[in-house]
Write a structure and sequence with these properties.
With 164 residues, this protein is α+β, with helices and mostly antiparallel strands. It has 2 helices and 11 strands.
């Protein structure tokens, strides 16, 4: 059976497309874009994440309707705002700035490489730092600066039989 030149090209094109599909998926998953300081990303649920520094951000930095996810940082919730910078991504303690959570919302910030997560239930914080959660070691676990007060919830605390 012989193929016409046009049919032969169609077969070659189909083989190339099928072979290139896995490569396209890998490239799409690693795409980023350069974002300037001051750029705000907003989830459908009303979480506003403002960048404090210029950086490469995932091409689509949203895990779902309520979660901003980029590299090792995830920020989720509703009706809230936060500013993140290089310290949020790379330094210890986990640090965020300009936190503002409305009474109807919440804001959870997590960093996978540190295994730390904090949820702001209500209030504001000019600066919020989450350290190592080591109860009883004589060092501060949380640091914050707030104008009107902030209510937070920590997860991943060791079970020591103490309530605070």
């Amino acid at each position: 059976m012989s193929l016409s030149p046009r049919a032969g090209l169609a077969v070659v094109a189909a083989i190339l497309l099928l072979g290139a599909a896995p490569i396209t998926v890998v490239v799409a998953q690693s795409l980023t874009h350069q974002s300037s300081a001051g750029v705000t990303y907003e989830t459908t649920s009303g979480v506003e994440v403002t960048l404090g520094d210029q950086r490469d951000v995932a091409a689509v930095p949203f895990a779902d309707d309520q979660t901003f996810a980029d590299k090792n940082v995830t920020i989720s919730g509703s009706d809230a705002a936060v500013e993140i910078d290089d310290a949020t991504y790379e330094q210890t303690p986990l640090t965020v700035r300009a936190v503002d959570v409305q009474s109807s919302g919440s804001l959870t910030v997590a960093r996978t490489d540190l295994g730390r997560e904090v949820t702001v239930v209500e209030g504001d914080a000019n600066l919020l730092q989450v350290r190592d959660f080591a109860v009883g070691n004589g060092s501060q676990d949380i640091g914050y600066d707030s104008d009107t007060g902030v209510t937070i919830r920590l997860t991943g605390l060791p079970s020591v039989g103490v309530a605070a």
